[in-house]
Amino acid sequence: MTRLLCALLIALLALAPAVAAQSSDALAVDDVEIAEELNVYGLPQTIARGQLVNNGDMAYTNINLTGQAFDANDAQIGEGFGVLINECGAGLAPDFVLQPGASHPFAVPLEMFEADAEIERLDVSAIGDETAPMSDDERALPDGITQLSEREVVAVEWEDDDTFRYAIGCERDLFTDWTWHRYDLASGRDRRITHPSARNVDEALFERLDLEDPLIAANSQLRFAPIGGQRLVYQNAINEVYTARVDGQFQRRLYTGLNSYSLQGYTWLPENRFMAYYYGAYGDPVIYFTADVDGRFISRAPLRSKPSSIIPGIAADGRRAIIAGTFDDVTGYYFEQLAQNYLELILEAEVPSVNYPPPVPLLNEEGDRATRVYLIRPLDGEARLQCIYRPTDGRNDLIDLAPTPLNLSFDERSWTFLSPDERYIALSANGVHSGLWLIDLQTLPCGGDD
Question: Less Cβ crowding at N or C end of the chain, within 10 Å?
Answer without folding.
Answer: C
